[in-house]
Structure formats: C-alpha cells, structure tokens
Amino acid sequence: MIREFLGKSPDIHSTAFVVDSAEIIGDVTMAEESSAWFNVTIRGDVNKITIGKRSNVQDNVCIHVMNQTGPTFIGDEVTIGHGAVVHGCTIHDRVLIGINATILDKAVIQPDVIIAAGTLVPPGKTLESGYLYMGSPAKAARKLSEEEIASIQKYSQNYVKYSRAYSGKDEYESNPFYKQE
Fold it and tell me: pTM for the complete prediction?
C-alpha cells in the first residue's frame, strides 16, 4: 500500500515495481526500475528515503529514518536481501546487503561492497569500497575479486527482470528465468 503521511506522498517512478503487500509511506522516492517486494516496509514518516535506479528491496525488509536528523539514502544498483533492516544511513551505488543484515544510524556504505548475511553495521561506521564485510560489529573480511564486484550488478539486473515478469511486461515464454532445457 502506498500512503501519504503529513502531506507527503511517495514519488514512485512509472518503471518501478511495488508488490501490493509492500507498505511505502510518506517522503519516499523510488527511481527507475527499482523494486519493493513482499511485506516490505519503507517508512519515510519523519524524514526522507531515497532509493536509486535498479535497486531492489527484497521480502520483509524494513527501511526507516532518524527523526529529522537522519534520512536514508540508497544509491543505484543496490540489492537489499530478505529481512534486512536499514535505518537512517547512506548506502552508495552497487552494494549487496545480505539476508537479515542490519545497517544503523549514520552508517555510510561506500560503492562496491558486499555485506554478509546477518552482519550488524553499527551507528556511524563507514564501510570502505571493495570489501566483503561480516560479523557483529561488521569487519572487513577480505578484498572482493573483480568477479564479485561485477556480480553485484548482476543481482540488480536479475531483479529488474523479475519485476518485469511479475508485472507482465515480459512474456512468460520469453523470460530467461523460466526457460526449460
């Protein structure tokens, strides 16, 4: 459901995809080919949330803000895995956030980062570009390979294809995810 709050309505690009069970509230902007999946909450009630191009917010994710002091910014080609919590932080382009990870207030995630499932990024922490982070609190586990960095964009591209299939913009028979060998 897309809801206005205190006179502010979500601004969702015409090519973005939002499942009916997603809750998108208030001062939220979703850019081209972004998507919000099943049971997602994106609550821009007391500050602004921006979601960039071709970014996907997967099932049961919660995105919120800090009251008047901390908007949430999500860049282009970001994948936010199932059940993650993203709160009042900045996530730059080409980031993969693993299942059930938590990113807290005023954290900054630089481009080309993978955050492992279950990782906790504490308030105010900056994650440097080009690394896999894991743990609670998050620590750099190792440098990413070029293939791993390229895979971040592939996840984003996959979710654009999924959203097109769900919205009926791609024919079932022509969609590469459904081809039978």
Answer: 0.92
Q: Residue 50, Cβ neighbours under 10 Å: how many?
A: 18
Q: How far is CA 27 from CA 2, 71, 153, 160, 181, in A?
A: 11, 10, 27, 23, 45
Strands 56-57 and 35-36: parallel
Tell me the C-alpha distance between 62 and 53, whole Å: 19
Mean pLDDT of the chain: 94
What's the number of domains the chain is made of? 1
Answer whether residue 173 shows pLDDT above 90.
Answer: no
Determine the structural domain holding residue 79 and report its residue range: 2-178
The domain that contains 46 carries what CATH number?
2.160.10.10
Query: What's the CA gap between 20 and 23, in Å, rounded?
Result: 8
Q: What is the DSSP letter of 172?
A: G
